[in-house]
Amino acid sequence: MGFDLEKIKKEYRLRYDHHTHTIYSRVGPYFHGKGRIIDNVRAAAKRGLESLAITDHGPSDFYGLDPRKTPQMRREIAAALLSFPKLKVYLGVEADIVDTPNGLDVPPEDFAKYDFVNAGYHYVPKCHMLHNFVAFRMPWPKKLKEKLRLRNTERIIKALRNNDINILTHPGDKAYIDEHAVAKACEETGTLVEINARHKHPDVRDLKIYKKYDINFVISSDAHRPKHVGRYAESLALALEAGIDPARIVNIEKR
Ligand SMILES: [Zn+2]
Ligand SMILES: [Zn+2]
User: Fold this and answer.
1) Ligand 2 center–CA 23 separation, angstroms
2) By the 8 A CB rule, do 53 and 37 touch?
3) Could you say which ligand is closest to the alpha carbon of residue 221?
4) How many angstroms separate the alpha carbon of residue 16 from the centre of ligand 1?
5) Residue 47's closest CA among 223, 248, 196, 240?
6) What's the CA-to-centroid distance between 168 and ligand 1, angstroms?
7) Chain segment 24-69, per-residue pLDDT in tens
8) Does the 5-254 domain belong in CATH 3.20.20.10?
9) Cα separation, 39 vs 22, whole angstroms
10) CA 231 / ligand 2 centre spacing (Å)
């Protein structure tokens, strides 16, 4: 990578991080997200962010949040803000793109529980989980891969068209997709395409496709630990390498 991360940090700042996880992403005694809400809030304030979103995994994920706990999550956010009154904190969710009537594991009637809904592809039931898991890691017959790519793409487009989705998280990670078709759907629905600091996709090749469409981008840390909240320099370097104008990244600002 030809970009100096320290130089990037000096030149640009991240205004907000709207994709972070906490211990509400858990299964039984196993915590998928390692920090509490207050820990992410404190980290965001320390990094000088204007706002933060707590977006734990959708309920069909093995370590998905329990939607009945959203009132408790809101209480924790309110309590955390007493110490950091300048920060704005949203409660969102990272819904899974699955085979349900609206295409997400967050049904329309649950949208009101959150300030916004992000959505992404994960290995969960009702998403060709096994096929995607294998095809993404091992040699797989080309014909089958193409079929899977088509199905994954259809699912994403359906979810985008049927729901008001804020951010499409890490498109192309965990499952093959047709980036052109997904980009067109994001353009049509005004959905932000995420440049994710944690996952391998979208990579520079993918971003060169997305930039051809009339879409905007957002950088997220996808932090699963408080220390990663607000990470952005690596993602911005990818965007610059792909030739994306930083003005198209909605949460990046020149210092
Ligand atoms: Zn994700
Ligand atoms: Zn995530």
Assistant:
1) 12
2) no
3) 2
4) 18
5) 223
6) 9
7) 999 999 999 999 999 999 999 999 999 999 999 999 999 999 999 9
8) no
9) 9
10) 13
